[in-house]
Amino acid sequence: MKSKELCIFLERLRSARDISQESFTDGVVSLRQYRRYLSGESDVPFQVIHLLTEKIGVKTDYLLREFEVAKGKETEIIMKLFNLAANHEHEEFVKLSKEIPLHQTIDKSNQLIYQHSIIIDKLYSKNISASEAAESNAKLINYPAILNSQIITTTEMLILSSLLDILDESHQFAIIEKAQNFINDTSLVISGGSEKIFIYILAKISKFFGIHEDYESVIYFCTKGIEQNLKLKSYYLMDYFYYYQALSFNKLDKIEEYEQMVVNCFNVLHFEGNSKKIAKFTALIEEDFNIDFVEFVSTYYERKSGKFQASNES
Question: Pairing between strand 189-190 and 152-153?
């Protein structure tokens, strides 16, 4: 357990109880030393944790249990923030960010994702340039030195994969090699944060190979993303995986598979019922494949139904 993280959690509880820092630390530790604990300059002795816990009227074992629960809830909120930023939903991003200020974020991985999300939101809101976003994200993970690291966290890989969209091609292939190693060899990975990070990285890799017309690789990594979602009973980015696969099968003239992926994409979109996403993918699919999305799916099922009836009659 990181003592800084626990101290930040205690600080959040102190603030919620409306106890001043002076009263909170009185008789336990100097205010200056307490702030060193908060900044991570010094580790917090367990006895200090115990005494501070008493100040807010809870038992230490209860505090530790609630600490773990709070980190889980925090991760959910931070991933929601990240998705809002990635989906260009600036107003909702600002609204949610007010619920959990960056300085009150407990988990270090969550802090990194939060900072990364702020950068993405600023980029998509046109408050910073692509080069500024690239520089800021690179600083978060010590890029390019991180490419030589033998071990990488899921959060670091998330931020590294985002650079595929904003760095030039001379950087991209080194990043994609690191991303593939990350996916294929879990011994090189320190897990942490949300399982959805892994799925997001698979989507980034799939998009990269699509841009570079390596359609077999697109299908391979999309399939891994779909399989991971099925394990988690999740639909996270399934619309993108089916869309990318539809594009790839179409390019490879695998018509049956292409049609199935278009239908799968339609089904996922309408199961989730997000009108913005339905409109977005309808526009993409109708432009890319020169079809009417709804009519295509309807015809597909009519054709399948006709074949089924014919096979029964025979």
Answer: parallel
Question: What local confidence, expressed as pLDDT, does residue 304 receive?
Answer: 86
Question: What integer pLDDT is reported at residue 3 of this predicted model?
Answer: 78
The one-letter amino acid at 266: F
Question: How far is Cα 94 from Cα 99, in angstroms, rounded to an integer?
Answer: 9
pLDDT tens digits for range 252-270: 999 999 999 999 999 999 9
**Tokens found for residue 236:** 């996270």
Buried b (16+ CB within 10 A) or exposed e, 50-89: eebbebeeeeeeebeeebeebbeebbebbbebbbbbbbeb
285, 243 Cβ separation under 8 angstroms: yes
Domains of the chain and any CATH numbers: 1-58 (1.10.260.40), 72-190 (no CATH), 195-314 (1.25.40)
pLDDT at residue number 194:
64
Looking up tokens 């049609």 gives: 259
SS3 annotation, 179-246: HHHHHHCHHHEECCCCCHHHHHHHHHHHHHHHHCCCHHHHHHHHHHHHHHHHHHCCCCCHHHHHHHHH
Low-confidence ranges of the chain (pLDDT < 50): 1
Peptide bond into 144 cis (omega under 30): yes
pLDDT of the residue at 190: 58
